[in-house]
Amino acid sequence: MPIIQHNISEDKLYEAYSFTQFVSYLSNLGGQALGVWLLTTSHQNFSFVAIVNAGFFLLSSLILFKNRRELTYLSVMVENESISLFQQVKAIYADMDDIFRQKESKSLFKMILVILVMNTLGGAVGGIYHFYLLDHTIYHLSYAQALFLIECVSLGGAILGSLTPHDYFGKLSFSSLLSLNASLFVLLATANILDFSPLVGVACLAFVMYLMSKSMPKLDTLLLSNLSADVLARSNNLLSMIFSLTLPLGMSIFSFLALQDIRLCWWVFLAGSVIGLILSLEKRSFSGKKV
Q1: For residue range 89-101, what is the model confidence (pLDDT) as tens digits?
Q2: Lower CB density within 10 Å: C or N end of the chain?
Q3: Domains assigned to the chain
Q4: Nearest 5°: CA angle at 200, between 194 and 206?
């Protein structure tokens, strides 16, 4: 992140992160397709696939080594005084809290709560559909075809969102995007609870992925624009670690609920969405009073 911060102007950061996210989606999709094809053509020769994988890592290293002079960043002052891990985390938290209070009118704690809820729901929705489609069909599609449609819609929405950083939604604040995401999760759960056409839920899911692909670059841009280089990487790693913990948690909880009762699962999903929406809409002034 310090390399991007140093080499890209502030007004281009959001566009750069959106494009980076788009490349990441394509790389994951292409890598999975290539891996399956190699396994099939090599008759499950995992050693061969591992060698090809190592070759790609070597190629990436050579490209980075060749362009190493362009990977510049600001020098970071190394403090001689020893600082405990707790003090470092406390300082990082204070810096990020100031940023969110100034830019988003919310405390860092509340923003983290909202993002944790959204990450938990977003990471679980795909798994819920695996169980939901066992008893529901989408225009007479088979189970495999319906799952493929869900994956295509999700990926398509995410890619489209990454490719359109300057549209109306790309100009919204990070908090506004979270509120819209929570609202769509409410609509998604409500549509499935009331047994609306599955296409209503699919449309909501596509829009959710579209907005989520704009939310994370917006968060990265917010940090890059306001944090100094010496704490930028640590701050981003701290947030990434916290957010990553919610993905398996959400999958586990909602998969268990879906196994018991899919309608109960959607009701809990709805409750989580409403909580996320309330947290994302509530603002506080700098004096700490609700507005």
Answers
A1: 787 778 778 877 8
A2: C
A3: 83-281 (1.20.1250.20)
A4: 135
